[in-house]
Amino acid sequence: MIPLNALRTFDAAARYESFSQAATELNVTHTAVSHQIRKIEDWLGTALFRREGRTVRLTGTGHALRKRTEGIFAELADIERHFRVRGRRDTFVIGCIPSIASHWLVPNINAFTKTHPAVDVQVMYAGMNERLSESTYDALITPNDDAATNIISTPLLSRVTYPVCSPEYLKKNGPFHTSEALISVDLLHDETRDGWQDWFRTAGVTPDATPADSLQGPVFQDFNLLVVSAIAGHGVALCPVDVYRTELERGDLIVISDHAINLDMHYRLF
User: Please, is 74 exposed, middle or buried when counting C-beta atoms within 10 Å of its C-beta (0-12, 13-18, 19+)?
Assistant: First the structure.
């Protein structure tokens, strides 16, 4: 049989006609998506996507397969939703993106379990693009919105994001008195380089001053790994300070610029 994981990857890539967006939804790397697509194309003996520069487009076979996988995964989701709910007994299932789960939810969940000892709490990692209206969670913590009319959304934590680094890195490479000064530092990236591009743009640093090769640096799929790298002194990371307040107060990380992005954005509880 066709590997189910490869089919799931194809379904996401076909829905967006984008390997990058599929990688974000599935919480994997762009390379992992490409590998799964090649696997299923080799298995079927035909191309499912046309590569057009940095974009991809479905072939005729790809469109035909997408129509089939759309129904298959909708049915599987319905089966999962139906039987998981039937089998649940006083269980509160929380879906949460990994960075918030480890740095906010888990450290604070003890207060809830003490107040409600009869409730079995399950914490599950959720993808960035998951929606409560399309899931089996009782609650979901994510940075993205949910357009469903019956979903209640509450701002939980601010996403205001500043550049941070370790005291050792600042002592060795700083000080950084201007936004332009950060062009030459070791930049650490969360999944893509879009965050730093946005930071430099909103800081008024022109594209000519920030050529593409200046934004090179390691890209981390898990934000927790990014923060570990910053604390270890490997470079400068963009960090939502509300989430990593403990590391900042402890002095593991230092905010090195007054310029922030994501000013009006929040991690939200649904």
Answer: exposed
